[in-house]
Amino acid sequence: MAGRLTAAGSRILGGGGARAAASALRHRAGMGLPVGRHIVPDKPLPVNDELVWDNGTPFPEPCIDRLAPHIGKYEALAWLCGGLGFFAALGVAAAVNDKASKIPYQFGY
């Protein structure tokens, strides 16, 4: 019953019957590809073409953004280790203070 359309639904979706409407709904609801037509290159691509995001705007941008070039790799490593260390300490504290594993199961209380 879930796959069938009513007569009104069939007329709204094109009038080709429930089978044609169901087929159209299965194929992206009849809207085509989500990104438009594929452009086939007719000449060789430039070197490192995959590193530039060009969506047709006048200013293509690099795929890897340099949001904070003033932060060095060792400072970034220190922040990463500090954050992971905090969550590791939080997990250890939760395991040490786990009251459910220390109190035996009691019936009816």
TrEMBL record:
The chain crosses the membrane at residues 76-96. It comes from the Eukaryota. Keywords: Membrane, Transmembrane, Transmembrane helix. This is NADH dehydrogenase [ubiquinone] 1 beta subcomplex subunit 8, mitochondrial. It comes from Miscanthus lutarioriparius. The lineage of its organism: Eukaryota, Viridiplantae, Streptophyta, Embryophyta, Tracheophyta.
